[in-house]
Amino acid sequence: MPGLDALPFPLPTVQQVIFILIAGMTVTGALITALAPNLFHNALGLVLAFFGVAGVYVLLEAEFLAVSQVLIYVGAIATLITFAIMLTRGMMFGRTSSTNRLMLSTAIISALFFLVLTGLLVNVAWPEIGAELAGSEQMIADLGEMFVTTYLVPFELMALLLLAALAGAILLARD
Amino acid sequence: MLNVSPRRREYETLPSLNNPAIPARAPLPQGETDDTKRIVERFGDAVIAAGLHNDQQMVYIRPDQLVDLANFLKTEEKLAYEALVDVSSVDCSKLPAGETIDARFHTVYQLRSYTRKRHLTVVCPADGGSQPVVPSLAPVFEGAVWPEREVYDLMGVGFSGHPDLRRILMPENWPNHPLRKDMPLGGEPVPFTLTWEDPEFETLGKQVLPAESVAPVLPPGMNRERMIVNMGPHHPSTHGVLRLVVELDGEDVIHVDPDLGYLHSGFEKTGENKRYKDFVYYTDRMDYLSAMNNNLGYVLAVEKLLGVEIPERAQVIRVIMSELQRIASHLFWLSTHVLDISGTGMSLLMYATRERERILDLFEMVAGARLTISYIRIGGVWKDLPPAFLSHLQDLVDLLPGKFDEYETMLTAGPLWQERLEGIGRLSREEAINMGLTGPMLRGSGVDWDLRRDMPYSGYENYDFDVPVSTDGDCYGRYIIRMEEMRQSVRILKQAMANLPDGLYRTDNRKVSLPPRAELDVSMEALIHHFKLMTEGLQVPPGMAYHGIEASKGELGFYVYSDGSAVPYRLHVRGPSFNNLYAISKMCRGHMLSDIVANIGSIDIVLGEVDR
Amino acid sequence: MDWINLLLLPVLRSVALIVVLLTGFAYLTWYERKLLARFQVRIGPNRAGPYGLLQPIADAVKAVFKEEIVPNMADKAVYMLAPALALIPALIIWAVIPVAKGVPAIADVNIGFLWILAIAGIESYGIILAGWSSNNNYSLLGALRSSAQMISYELPLGVFLVSILMLAGGFSLVSLVETPRAWWEWIWLWLMFPLFFICILAETNRSPFDLPETENELVAGFQTEYGGIKFALFFMAEYINMITTSAIMATLFFGGYRLPFGLLGDVIWLGPFVLAAKVIILLFLFIWVRASVGRPRYDQLMQFNWKFLLPVALGYMIITTLLTVFLK
Fold first, then answer.
1. Are residues B149 and B289 in the same domain?
2. All chains having 3 or more CB pairs closer than 8 angstroms to chain A
3. Of A30, B5, B63, C102, which is most buried with the most CB atoms under 10 A?
4. How many angstroms separate the CA of residue C137 from the nearest CA in chain B?
5. Do A14 and C3 touch (CB under 8 A)?
6. Contact with chain C for residue B592, Cβ under 8 A
7. C215 and B344: CB-CB below 8 Å?
8. Residue A44 and residue C144: Cβ atoms within 8 Å?
9. What pLDDT is attached to residue A112?
10. How far apart are CA B98 and CA B105, in angstroms?
11. Are C111 and A64 within 8 A, CB to CB?
12. Of chain C residues 79-138, which have a CB less than 8 A from chain B?
């Protein structure tokens, strides 16, 4: 294919094309989440963003993480959010403003957070693209082992936190 | 755009045949019974008349003492009329003035004592001329709420002290009260109706006519903040065009308000413009699942006024038909109830309709029709049983008990079935009586009452059968009762088949039933009878009669007021479904959405009868 | 070659799979109608073609040519999106199911189990969106029921899957089928099968757990406002879900594409047919249950899950852990 070499820019690889698509999807989702006037649409935007993030994980060959992302965030958390929105009937078709009086402080916090992230992105020595990973089956096993050895205390603390949240939710729902 | 419904054709009667004694008022009751004596003692002058009329206990009372009388009847231990079975009304404006009463409207109450097995009719001439008002009995008998609404709606009688006096069958914005005698049958403007002259007919493709839209009205006591769901009028499990306005909190039912009348077709008004014999065919269309029972109830009420003897064979045939119809109706109830509760896949629908089909085949055999049969006629039945009928019936009777066992193995002990029905729609004995419920609804709440046994008609006293009673008062209890009733019906059928006498299948009283065709050729007298019956019709002596029978859904009562002519002056139907459906609000409150469906099924309604 | 390996081949495989599944769906409706008819002493479809075999085609034509109606007050974009979202999970779950020796439907990824769980989790979206966007009380109630039911039944389903995972010792479904099992493992698995099947019934909204679309209470539940081809998509999703879950159950419990005792193990082309046969038998179970079991009430369904299924699933998992540690 001689014509292709003559292009002024290099032809993107498959990964790059897919990455651009996924990134576009994620950003769109995030924008819908932040800007759409309808609360239910916000929740759907969030789902889209979650999917995008899962896609990024797949590109990074972290299938386990990707599927966990879908399983937990899309399958459970976002479902619960939509569920809650449906239960509050008043919000169903009303338009909610995407801004409120906390706008300024939120903007400052977001900007600071963005700076921190940018700093991280620039300064940390990230592994090169294309570096081969060890057998992923083994990785999952290692992950599991770490949970019950090195990170046992945080792991249990997280479980406790979730339990407390669960009990609190039931308490609130009973009123 | 409003259209005009077609005018009716008047019956043509030779002027010389007009009897000057017609129309006549129903005579006042004569004599006295223990009960009327007590009432007269207590109320003295307020009682206009009391005694017996056509073997029915009857009291005429002045309206100011009506509520006191109701309280007295209900609470006095020696009277114990616990239940108000029916409320109806008569517009006397086309009748000659009475000697003692000149009120235009009468309200008529049917009271029942379950413990003493007595029936009492109370007639109350209303004050107020053409804007009549009578005190409401709803504070005394809860069962009066809907029937009084119906009377208000159709006859325009106001009830002071009624908790919820809205129209019930006609639309909220209906201009008049159709059962009044000055309302013509036909000729009035009717929205949505086309006449042949109408230009709209030229473009039949345009079927939706413009009609003024009416803003939806929230039933009283409902809160718009919660979710309001309209179950019906087009809903798979309301058994027709019933509309339930349901207020929901999540899946929990807060409030249910039934909206009736989508199928209201004015049977009573029609009946008041048809000859007695012609109305039999209309009764089929009310509770179309138990046409035989409807025929029977109507003809019994008319026969009570006529005072004719029905031959033994006809009586037994009537019992056979009535019990077959009860089984058919219960089978259909069972199949739809299972379908409502368990979903489409539940095969019992098909199994039960398969057996019902056999019964319909039998009906086809005797009458040529399967659903709207009109087999039971005034004076007997239409034709004698065909020769092969009994052997086919025998086959069916042998088959049915096994099939009932089969259904019960699928349901009765099944945990899913029990969980769906037990404790749902619970009604206490007092509530059931007070609300005027009848049939399995009443027996399900522990009242041991069956009109067939306790006020026998058509020779039911000659049969040996049990009346199943459940004290649970829930849907499961009512289910068990209906299953047992089918078995008892089979038992009655067996006895009836064994005791079927030979003889006439309809009365030979030629004032009531036509002479056979062959007789016309040889007998002048027969020819005269035939001529009189065909031209003047069957003339019923003046009077009023209420007759209730135990139909499959409860007490089916017909109230007939005759002015002596061949057309009933007032015809009122007490549909069991109508009165039983009143309980739905109480049954559903506090349960879940799914239980509404179970409750509707458990009440066993047919909308043709509810709306009439 | 990059393009061909990464895109073209999977696309071809997917298309083939979808064609097979859609045909399967069409004839599953016929299969169900015929079977239900037999259970209910009826005949079933018999007019279109011999034995009514052309009935699915007639249905499809009818669905496609029906007038498209969108309710006025519906949220149009979401309303149109919902049927698609209902169908997609039912299809993509197939990616990891092995159809023949060493041949997964799309890819042998080492996260097969998790994939099933994750997709099961997003299956409820189509229904939720449909119920919400229709702007109809019945639809909303159906959607609420559906999401609560799916979230609840996912828990025991997940716990059961984890138990199977522990027995298998790996995430891949391909290796699960290939690895021989000890006799006690089979028995222990089959003990759990009825409970697993109940979870699957609830996940696929099949009778007796078809509460989101109970026509006797909610008219048609979440799909009340849908007609024509959009309704057909929901219908398709439900039936393809049945096929999919049957395939999963066949893979997890009955050795997938393999014949018992390793018969004819070398004949690779036999695999899909063996799997199909097992799927058809399992589908018969679905239909049998529909014809004979009544529907519980919504709260009873939830109680059954939380008070019975989940504890049993947890107990099962603990025992499985012990068995795995001591016997393997």
1. no
2. C
3. B63
4. 6
5. yes
6. yes
7. yes
8. no
9. 92
10. 12
11. yes
12. 137-138
The residue from B142, B160, B178 where one domain ends is: B160
Instruction: Note whether residue B5 is domain-resident.
Output: no
Residue B168 resides in a domain: no
- Answer with the one of B160, B176, B195 that is the final residue of a domain: B160
Q: Report yes or no on B267 lying in a domain.
A: no
Interface contact C294-B420, CB threshold 8 A? yes
Rounded to 10°, the helix B475-498/B389-411 angle is: 160
The number of helix segments (H) and strand segments (E) in chain B equals: 20, 17
Of A13, A79, A86, the CB nearest to C140: A86
Q: C215: which chain B residues are within 8 Å (Cβ-Cβ)? A: 236-237, 343-344
CATH classification of the domain holding B421: 1.10.645.10
Contact B131, B159 (CB under 8 A): no
State the Cα–Cα distance between residues B133 and B67, nearest whole angstrom: 13
Residue in C with minimal Cα distance to A81: C147
A86-123 pLDDT, tens per residue? 766 554 555 566 667 778 888 899 899 999 999 888 88
Is C206's pLDDT higher than 60?
yes
Phi, psi torsion values for C36, nearest 5 degrees: -60, -40
Asked if residue B262 has pLDDT above 70, the reply is yes
Three-state SS sequence of chain C: CHHHHHHHHHHHHHHHHHHHHHHHHHHHHHHHHHHHHHHCCCCCCCCCCHHHCCHHHHHHHHHHHCCCCCCCCCCHHHHHHHHHHHHHHHHHHHHHCEEECCEECCCCCCCHHHHHHHHHHHCHHHHHHHHHHCCCHHHHHHHHHHHHHHHHHHHHHHHHHHHHHHHHCCCCHHHHHHCCCCHHHHHHHHHHHHHHHHHHHHHCCCCCCCHHHCHHHHCCHHHCCCCHHHHHHHHHHHHHHHHHHHHHHHHHHCCCCCCHHHCCCCCCCHHHHHHHHHHHHHHHHHHHHHHHCCCCCHHHHHHHHHHHHHHHHHHHHHHHHHHHHHHC
Phi, psi of B258 (to 5 degrees): -75, 140
Provide the domain count of chain B: 2
Please state, in angstroms and rounded to a whole number, the distance separating the CA atoms of residues B378 and B303: 7
Residue of A nearest to C123 (CA): A75
Contact B420 C296 (CB under 8 A): yes
User: Does residue B229 belong to the interface with chain C, where contact is any CB pair within 8 Å?
Assistant: yes
Residue B594 within any structural domain of the chain: yes
- Find the CB nearest A70 among C6, C7, C121: C121
- Residue entry with tokens 């879908």: A70
**Residue B110, domain CATH:** 3.30.460.80
Expressed as residue numbers, the domain containing B508 is 280-294+310-526+576-611
- List CB contacts (< 8 A) between C135 and chain A: 92-93
Torsion angle of the four alpha carbons B214, B216, B220, B221, in this order, in degrees rounded to the nearest 10: -170
State how far residue B108 is from chain C, nearest Cα, in angstroms. 39
- Residues B344-384: tens digit of each pLDDT: 556 788 888 888 999 999 999 998 888 888 899 888 888 88
List Cα–Cα distances, B527 to B28, B437, B532, in angstroms: 36, 48, 9
- Closest-CA distance, C108 to chain B, in angstroms, reads 38
In this prediction, the answer to ipTM > 0.90 reads: no
CB B367 within 8 A of CB B377: no
**Contact call for C147 and A79, based on CB within 8 A:** yes
